[in-house]
Give the backbone structure.
Amino acid sequence: MIERLEELQQEALQQIEEAGDTKQLEQVRVKYLGKKGPITEVLRGMGQLSKEERPVVGQKGNEVREAIQERLEKKTKTLADEALKEKLEKETLDVTLPGRKVQRGAKHPLTSVVEEIEDIFIGMGFEVTEGPEVETDYYNFEAMNLPKDHPARDMQDSFYVSSDLLLRTQTSPVQARSMERHHGEGPVKIICPGKVYRRDDDDATHSHQFMQIEGLMVDENIRMSDLKGVLETFVKKYFGEEREIRLRPSYFPFTEPSAELDVSCGICAGEGCRICKHTGWIEVLGCGMVHPRVLEMSGFDPDVYSGFAFGMGVERFSLLKYGIDDIRHFYTNDMRFLKQFTRV
């Protein structure tokens, strides 16, 4: 048995030396030191030996195991050192090279425009208010004087989640919710920025998702002249003191009377050019006096309170401010485009 153990030791040590990776070493370990290995088989036959021979063979078996285990550990370390050396040679770094410049992020141009508009209206005493993007049909339409059979609903093709829930088509629901929270007592003076959703085909001037900022002021004795004064102040602060405004009659279900606000063209100074279609004016937002029905549905007495509301598209104001010709630039994450606004 001792001779057999010595033979197995030599075989194992030979195979350990020939092993080229740790996987082969593990195979050798299992083969010779495993429970079903030849060394274990030899030692199981010790029951047939005399009492004097058993301790000698047992000691020899332990010596063989230890020798194999020691050589395995030594070979494993050698292979690990060789692998590390090879990896270091492949990944050699030239520490004399200059470091890579860390690129600093910047605000998205739409975020900058929203914050600028917010600052202007906050300076006029307005409060910034937000609301849910998944809205009920009631707050999105009915509370805005758009009952279920109203033909003006076709103007806002919507994404419905269920028969009563939809992705809001405007930020007007925030106005309705805010008026409700005042329980029929003014004043209410808010702007509502946020994303809205409509089933539009994406092109240079339309998107299925875009941003709006709507404003609302409700109090006693609010007049159309107050609306004009607020919007004129806003336009001059945003576009420049030289810009002029005009109001044109229009129609919105939730305001009466309603109007479109035009701003004098900043390219031609009102003389007429391609940008303003040779009219000298550019349409920028819709506005009007809050419809008495909307006030009543939100808990305000229309005989006591009046108010005005307006709504603007953030992307449109961004296009006009920066001279951008395609709304899709805002959403494609093209770094060549976004880097132009790193100092905005």
Summary: The longest strand covers residues 209-220. DSSP finds eleven helices and ten strands in the chain. Residues 2-90 form one domain.
